[in-house]
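Forum: Protein Structure Q&A
Topic: Joint prediction for protein chains with partners

I've read a bunch of threads here and the consensus seems to be that you should model interacting components together rather than docking separate models afterwards. I'd like to see that in practice. Below is the full input, 520 residues plus whatever partners are listed. Could one of the regulars post the assembled result?
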Amino acid sequence: MTAERAIPPVRPDPESLPFWEAAREGRFLLRRCSACGQAHWFPRTLCPFCWSGDTAWEEASGLGTVYSWTVLRAGAVPNIVAYVELREGPRMLTDLVEVEPDAVAIGQLVEVVFRPTSDPDGPPVPMFRPR
Amino acid sequence: MTIRSAACIVGAFEHPTRHAPDKSHAQLHAEVAAGAIADAGLSRDDIDGYFCSGDAPGGLQSMLNYLNLTVRHVDSTDIGGVSPIVQVAHAAAAIALGRCNIALITLAGRPRADRVKTGTEPRIRHAAAPDVQWEYPYAVPTAASYALAARRHMHEFGTTSEQLAWIKVAASHHAQHNPNAVLRDVVTVEDVVTSPLVADPLHRLDCCVISDGGGAVVVARPEIARSLARPVVQVRGAGESTGHQHGGLIDLTRTAAVRSGPAAFAEAGVTPADIRYISLYDSFTITVLLQLEDLGFCAKGKGGAFVSDGALISGVGRLPFNTDGGGLCNNHPANRGGITKIIEAVRQLRGEAHPAVQVPDCTLALVHGTGGQLATRHGAGTLILERAA
Ligand SMILES: [Zn+2]
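Posted by a regular:
Agreed with the consensus. Here's the joint model:
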């Protein structure tokens, strides 16, 4: 895309703060449960699959494939919204960047890239681009 | 314990307005309440249960204060625009338990007068909602959410834009007979697929209208229903559920109707083949298609073929739907399509639909809604209604 829209800032909370601190360093974290072994999205302290509190952060591959996508054309700059199926399993709502809409396809391999929001002091948010 | 035959819909009213810059939001609720009570042949003093949802300005307590109602049972369930559909079942349950005898359900709003950018601008519901930080940066308004589902369905099952367009075409065939409808012109498949893209693959004509207004229904004990002058429309079965991201295992091609539908059919003791008329939530064409599959009217993935060639047009196809023109053409008041779905089903069961779209001998109808957003969190409610002998 030639231009990108202004991204609304995120407000980390005590539960999500480690994710956003890692994002400032360009690291993409996932949370995985030791009790059932599954990674989930979005990150939670209690595993959403088994409610065990035995969960921990791990650095993820940052790779995935496009599960579905759309182009929202209402704004000044068209925005590609997508679900990306992460290599670790969970599907994540996100935006695709650095790609034209007619070059996007379901199943396409993508990688995480962090984008600054409109708050210069806030953390960047994970989006995905073709790999 | 069942709500089967425990309650009846005795009053139904749809506000005739579709643009109400000269009315307050609360006033619209009051006008539909008065309309439904008058339709039933009851008085406001008979009401002992009140139900409203997220569209009620200031919430339930503000509405009761404004309407000056004193009741002994309340319910402000909010699972999106489907809420009044599940509230009919909640009212029936409350009546079965003796918590109230006559329940009023109102829905109204004025997004058109307020120039709300419905569907194309993200809305934050609550800053501390756990999902906001994982969604809001990505700008996923309602249209994008349903477009993601449509794209995935096309990918998995070969569904086409032309097949989705048939849903709008059917709604437009019905809306031509409704003088209050926002869109009264009959459209073609080509009109739909050549209208501008809002969120690929959904076009402008794949989307519902934005309208002001509202509606209300009155649910009452069967003895009361039989004492009134109106045809008796009985609640026969209901089901409700919600769908969400499931920890990251979201399936965009399935809605919570896969749970609410079977529950309603089991309670009613009927099958999809028994349904003569169907009111289906039609925020977007894809919503209708997914619901038909998930309720069991056709196999998963076969919805495109099922809706094609006028199958949903009254007098033409196998399953007449939304004979008032639905949200796609007639009315989607307060950005919520639940109440109008109930009202048109009541008209059909009473034999009071427009003669051009009235289903002959309409004895059993199904009402189903999908509120919220398919790509994040949505509510589902199924209601099976019958005309009592
Ligand atoms: Zn677990």
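The longest strand of chain B covers residues 233-243.
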